[in-house]
Amino acid sequence: MDLPFEQFAALSATEICRHAFTRRIPGIDVSHDKSETLRQLEHAHREIRNAIGIGDWPLITVEQIHGNELAIVGSGIRSEQAKHFAGCDGIITNQRGVALGIYVADCCAVYIVDAKTPAIGLVHSGRKGTELGVVSGAITQMIERFGSNPANMTVQLSPCIRPPHYEVDFAAEIVQQCRALGKEQIHDSGVCTACNLERYYSYRAEKGRTGRMLALLGLNPKL
User: From the CB of residue 191, how many other CB atoms can be counted at a distance below 10 Å?
Assistant: First the structure.
């Protein structure tokens, strides 16, 4: 049976990263609080990590409080480690063999890949985070900390909730914020989570009793 995840052509074309965006997991009861729901989904998400070749990489996640603070991941993380950053909504790194993870259920997971430096970022950006410029902050931090150039970045937006199911088109605002920093081409399929409940979880459409998709991104080890 095919595992329930998708990949994005623009990220695959960079040839320097491994990534996935999980979908709704069939047969999993997600009518629990968030922590229990994630526990229920853990096995399937681990299978997907294994399938894309990052199952033994350290997994870095963040608390996701709808803010604009970022975690910067440096060297010194061992393969058996998993690390969770409180108070943050995005992660950037230039370390290879490290998996970044963001959970979403209507908010947008924004993948940022700088193939030249190389460096990557993964950001949780819903309405509040977008208003606070969390994606702009991640790009700016990649420039300042890693010497990245926005012109070399590939930016991919995950499926997220959109009008008319939500009153604000924050995906369009994310695109505008990226362009303001010099990134002209941003990849966005335009898929709405609330319109596709057979494929995705939607916090708004399912009134909070739902699961989470997991966005995953990591730089390939050197050959």
Answer: 16
Where residue 145 sits, what CATH number does that domain have? Answer: 3.60.140.10
pTM exceeds 0.90, yes or no: yes
| Per-residue confidence in pLDDT tens, the chain, 223 aa | 588 999 999 999 999 999 999 999 999 888 888 888 889 999 999 999 999 999 999 999 999 999 999 999 987 776 555 799 999 999 999 999 999 999 999 999 999 999 999 999 999 999 999 999 999 999 999 999 999 999 999 999 999 999 999 999 999 999 999 999 988 889 998 999 999 999 999 999 999 889 999 999 999 998 6
**Tally of domains in the chain:** 1
